[in-house]
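Before the break, one more example. Copy the sequence into your notebook; we will annotate it together after we see the structure.
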Amino acid sequence: MHVKVSSLLKKIEELQGDTPWGHVLDAGTGPKSLSWISRLPSQSWTAVTAQSSMVESARGALQVPPRETDRIVLGNWVDGSLLEGERFDTVLLDYFIGSIDAFAPYSQEALLHRIAASVRGTLYITGLEPYVPVVVDEEVGSFVGDLARLRDACMLLARDRPYREYPSSWVAAQLRQIGFTVTHTKYFSIRYRHRFLSSQLQICEDRVTRFTDPDLAAAMGKHIAQMRHRGELLIERNDGLRYGRDYLIRAVPG
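Here is what the structure looks like once it is written out:
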């Protein structure tokens, strides 16, 4: 399974430069990040996931066979015994802050502090800036915001918890409070295409099957179809949906 390396991960390699990767921790792993980490010239890697289904997905994305020192760990960071006392030279939180709400609600601050304590070298954090109203292209911005609200509504009605994104300014402030120095912050403009639209609407369609009210499910199904048509037209007309930005933060202790 080949997973394309994102611009953010390529930037991390650039920032790392000649500094040895050492023992690497991927605190919230997935196919994308583990595929990348498995190819790094590290001494070892440890990848943590709270989802049992993600273990096989992540393992299937490995580009290089794991060494005896490499491991995928199934666990939740709210468990104080998870990797207790272990420290790592390089730690990656790849869209981790935003995903915590689905597995450990209201614990973003505590878990960021806890994982930061395991860093003895470099911490890299990637995330999505929360969507805010824009005036550059109101039609595109409105659609992306409506799509996000539709996804979250479907998840909530299916009794799941949606992700909750935190801005880079909040992350940087938390890092400073625990004694880290932010050495680099970079933003990446986003252009969403058909794959993104399909993935977001697939989340909606999957959740609709779990609605307890059949009339609501039917109405939501029609709305999802309308959103798909609306989104496809906007993508074709604008060569994608240019909206929002991802961020990358590099920080070190002290």
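The chain is about 45% helix and 20% strand. Residues 78 and 239 are 42 Å apart (CA to CA). Try to locate both features in your own notes.
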